[in-house]
Amino acid sequence: MISGCSGGGKSSLLAELARRGHATINEPGRRVVEAELAGDGANLPWIDLAGFAREALRLAVADHRAAQRLRGPVFFDRGIVDAVLALQSVGQGGEATRLARRLRYDARVFLTPPWPAIHVRDHARRHGFQAAVDEYRRLRQGYPRLGYHVALLPRIGIRARADWLLARAGL
């Protein structure tokens, strides 16, 4: 699992891992935003965070199940826990939290720390850097509460970051 600060380089890191031949799963939240922007937009995170998180959770569960059929390690760009923590932040995490305890990833989670030099807004990421930092804090505290060990990714170039992650993962 690769999670952490929004705009912290997760998607770029996943692209590098995919380029090297590793199986990757793209971020559920980004896919929800793209679908909502193409549709009625009711579940955009800046309109309905709970609706957005429920949709991200639905995709993350499907991704988790689909990954069982892939060979070798699979690297996820966010997943079930991220959606559950978003639901918890709006007081709706009950059943979803139990789901996160049942559908597990590898015990070590790699988090991207806040990195102002690479954080950018775009059509799908409309929040500013401080909101990304707040989200990072929620993730940094939430993953250990759900039994995961957090490793912070260093602020280095994409290739070096991929090398660092693969070495820590024993690959």
From TrEMBL:
Residues 2-161 form the NadR/Ttd14 AAA domain. Gene3D superfamilies: P-loop containing nucleotide triphosphate hydrolases. Transmembrane segments: none annotated. Signal peptide: none annotated. It comes from the Bacteria. SUPFAM superfamilies: P-loop containing nucleoside triphosphate hydrolases. Pfam families: AAA_28. This is ATPase. It comes from Paracoccus zhejiangensis.
